[in-house]
Design goal:
Layout: H1 5-8, E1 10-16, E2 24-30, E3 36-40, E4 46-48, H2 51-59, E5 67-68, E6 82-84, H3 91-96, E7 101-105, H4 106-109, H5 113-117, E8 123-126, H6 131-145, H7 148-166, E9 175-181, E10 186-189, H8 194-201, E11 205-206, E12 212-214, E13 217-218, H9 222-228, E14 232-236, H10 262-265, E15 269-271, H11 274-279, H12 285-296
Amino acid sequence: MFKNRNLLMIVTLMAALTLGAVPVLAKTITDETGRRVEIPDNPQRIVALTPWVVELLFDLNHPPVGRPSSAVYPKEALKVPAHGTSYRLNYERILAMQPDLIIGNANLHTSQLPQLETIGAPVLLFNINSYEDVLEKTQILGEITGHTEEAAAIIENIKERFAKLQQKLPETGPTAVILVGSSEAFSVAKENSYIGDILATLGGRNIATGPEHRPGFTKLSLEYIAEADPDVIFAVKPARNPREASSALEGYDKNPLWSSLKAVKTGRVYELDPVIFFMNPGPRVIDALEQMAAYLYPEVF
């Protein structure tokens, strides 16, 4: 059902028996660092290191006891104590939260495992890089927390909405490029990034090729983009506080090549919400899919 199922699913249940003690169940999971991690059955004090874990745990009715300060959705998350940011973890605060499980992002936190493991709680690291990853991680976190029914309901809702979307998609989509960052220093999302996967899932044809300076992203000049001349241009500008961020499109028009682009001439340049398209992949992937579909196929949606 899920592409990484064999790697990430719960592989065994073990009973930890001690003389005269009540049996304590534990699960052993292989995360995306390749480590086999033993975690408690139905952990109650989960500290999330990345926003998508916070959002998904709330959707599963199993809120975390700690969150990064950038995790502000749903609004109830603001009541959860913050331990720092996803990029700069505060280990003392995490320790003070007395976690029985820590869940983070493999791309961000693998290098910080030595410090995290000194806290004494098991650490699981996962990534969400695609639509299918959202479904997979929803099921895995449902199993971890004992909320499998809630996970199944979330997955069913996403799939139902996506099926309705797919019925309207034309056979061939437009060419497109996704600019990430500012006009002074932007990257271009490839198909193996989360936002690039959303484009590919909708049938859009991504012009991005070339070596990656970080997973899923490459550097392309505006000259290269002008040569490819995509039908649609998307721009997203991640920021620590998205509400205060300037426009993702600011400054591009200073380059004479910008006005020569087909997408600019036809008015097919769109700014994307940095939260759901870049910073917080997760259950709202269906919202991202529906929004991008409306931009790609305005004659249909």
